[in-house]
Amino acid sequence: MPGVERSAETIGVEEEFLLIDPASGRTAARADAVLSVLENTQLTRFHAELAATQVEAATGPCTELAELRVALCDARERVRAAARQHGLRVVSAGLPERGAEQPVGGRGKRFREILIRYAGVVADYEACACQVHIGVPDRKTGVAVLNHLRPWLPTLLALSASSPHRGYASWRMVLQSRFPGSGVPPWFSSADDYDAHIRRMVECGTLVDESMTFWLARLSRRWPTVEFRAADAVPDVEMAVLQAALSRALVRTAITDIAAGREAPRVRDDVCAAAIWTAARHGLDGPAVHVQHECQVPATKLVNALVEHVAAALEETGDTDTLEKLP
């Protein structure tokens, strides 16, 4: 907040990696084998994902980007080393070039329920994301922050697009849009409104449980964080750090606006959907949708608008130099 010293919000990053068989070039359903030789550290924990061709590395909460960078580099090297022990290589990308014939199978009760519930939507789903958790004081603040994030999620997607296929910059987002409720989250009036919406979708049968949503930003059920889920898996650590820096700056800016009584812009759901589709189609190499003006603009113009929007927050946390990594 202007004139008030405030500690930096914590950051955690979850990166999903594809396991590749060098001989065939296809993804390999060997996650359990790779995870068996991966040991959690103080910096990072390693997890299975829905597809047996993927491994996830999740950092602990960091307060400085330098600390986060060390954790991400360490995690990537550990995953690569574990994969090499099984004759595999690791790729960080939104989608594989050549997927496995059967990447998803019965891997625990909840995963089996997801496979049954969504059937063909997940049968060949190997999409990978770079997910960022930013600490917030409480769920009430977190929901208000989500409202402020809605206009900017398409730009975070465009910046990260790394799954080119069939003319799209992010085919991962096209695949994700097949799930019910995917995209920019709705506007919520309160934490109770947010929780009631999720319970309603569980009762309607479109979500397996209250821990699941397909929105591109949501509240974590386990931690006091806002979780960004817009970005494709990114090829290098610096792009992951950039996503983390921009995400924290967006949250910090939102909290400042909330404290000042500035309400988030009421952008239309259908225009947000158009903006996500356009970001998936073009990435940064074409038009984007300005959700407040409800028209097309160059994608780079929205990147510049995002930078201007969060400039003060980046300066407060000493993260302005991360903008050098912008395309």
Automatic annotation (TrEMBL):
Enzyme class: ligase
Descriptive protein name: Putative glutamate--cysteine ligase 2
Cross-referenced NCBIfam families: gshA_cyan_rel
UniProt-listed Pfam families: GCS2 (PF04107)
Record-stated family: Belongs to the glutamate--cysteine ligase type 2 family. YbdK subfamily.
Task of the protein: ATP-dependent carboxylate-amine ligase which exhibits weak glutamate--cysteine ligase activity.
This enzyme's EC code(s): 6.3.2.2
PANTHER family: GLUTAMATE--CYSTEINE LIGASE 2-RELATED (PTHR36510:SF1)
Keywords for the protein's UniProt record, in alphabetical order: ATP-binding, Ligase, Nucleotide-binding
A GO MF label: glutamate-cysteine ligase activity
Catalysed transformations (reactions): L-cysteine + L-glutamate + ATP = gamma-L-glutamyl-L-cysteine + ADP + phosphate + H(+)
Superkingdom of this protein's organism: Bacteria
Record-level GO BP terms: modified amino acid biosynthetic process
Organism expressing this protein natively: Lentzea tibetensis
SUPFAM superfamilies: Glutamine synthetase/guanido kinase
InterPro entries recorded: GCL_type2/YbdK_subfam, GCS2, Gln_synth/guanido_kin_cat_dom, YbdK
